[in-house]
Specification:
8-stranded parallel barrel, two-stranded antiparallel ribbon, about 15% strand, globular
Length: about 325
């Protein structure tokens, strides 16, 4: 029902916008550091901070530097970091076996962070693309992504991550049935408290380019695409079906990816299911804002905060964003 409004001049909506304290008093949504998850790229080495050219202000960090970043996140009130590996070519193969190596890069980084900053959450990505010499999220046989065979690999990967101490597993592969498969394995291996944040509505988007540079997957994928398993950007109802499936299989939280171009999906998911709903403000979104700010076309700080507030308005409980530490400082100040 549309709220009743007095006609002008008795009704003057501008009265509620007249001063900063009134605007604060009637604000419908608020953004805090607690709403943010900070994606961090990790790489081999010691005391390494390697800038990612396509992501201004973002670097690949060695494990010791990632620990410092996690400490910084905790100081800023950011509750969780999400780790993504830059995998050397020598560690990639068609079977993606490095994905479930207990001593792989993200598993070592997880243990180091949880030892140094036990109060912060660690989220790990469950997908094969950083480790697959084909650059795909699933195993490839004869040019075809193998759904059911990939589930076995993803299950091994998820258990290794849980053993390393990951608090949240984020299956981002978009294979059918993966949430139920992973949840069953976690139960069998006594990891019943490990959370699953499903990339439930992940679209075959052009906005992922800088991320693929950051994890070293661009060359492996080449001119290929992921349209046979990631969602068609034209579809909205399909996203609701995907979310329903993942919830039924045991997901605790769901994610929409990318973010700003899909705010309608965020709003529909939250309205339909009333479960913890997140969005990933992906690399292309971040890079566009930074590029425009770098050219003086907009205020980068204000654009970052405004873009994240839009997720809250759409119903999201939180956002994965490369802006996390910067925005946490801005809003706390």
């Amino acid at each position: 029902m549309t709220p009743l409004a007095a006609p002008f001049p008795h009704g003057r909506p501008r009265r509620l916008r007249r001063t900063p304290w009134i605007r604060d008093l009637v604000a419908e949504n608020r953004l805090t550091a607690k709403d943010l998850i900070w994606p961090i790229f990790v790489r081999e080495g010691i005391d390494v901070e390697e800038p990612v050219a396509s992501l201004p202000g973002v670097s690949r960090l060695s494990v010791d530097r990632a620990v410092r970043a996690a400490e910084q996140a905790a100081e800023l009130g950011i509750p969780c970091v999400a780790l993504f590996p830059y995998t050397e070519a020598a560690d990639k193969n068609p079977e993606a076996t490095e994905a479930w190596n207990p001593e792989n890069l993200v598993n070592r980084a997880t243990r180091a962070i949880k030892a140094a900053v036990p109060e912060i959450g660690v989220m790990l990505d469950v997908a094969l693309d950083p480790y697959n010499s084909d650059g795909h999220d699933g195993l490839v046989r004869g040019g075809v992504i193998q759904n059911d065979e990939t589930l076995i690999a993803l299950g091994q990967m998820a258990v290794a991550q849980a053993e390393a101490g990951a608090d949240i597993l984020g299956p981002s592969d978009m294979m059918d049935g993966r949430i139920g498969f992973i949840r069953q394995l976690l139960e069998e291996q006594d990891f019943s408290d490990t959370l699953i944040m499903s990339y439930a509505a992940k679209y075959a988007s052009c906005f992922y380019g800088p991320f693929r540079d950051a994890v070293g997957a661009t060359a492996a994928l080449g001119s290929g695409d992921k349209k046979t398993y990631q969602m068609d950007p034209a579809n909205g109802d399909e996203a609701l079906r995907e979310v329903a499936i993942d919830l039924a299989e045991g997901a605790d939280m769901v994610m929409v990816k990318p973010g700003l171009p899909y705010l309608d999906i965020c709003a529909r998911v939250k309205a339909e299911y009333r479960v913890p709903t997140y969005a990933y403000q992906v690399s292309g979104e971040y890079a566009m804002i930074e590029a425009a700010a770098g050219n003086g076309w907009l205020d980068g700080d204000r654009a970052a905060v405004e873009s994240l507030l839009a997720f809250k308005r759409a119903g999201c409980d939180g956002v994965l964003t490369y802006f996390a530490p910067r925005v946490a400082r801005l809003i706390s100040g």
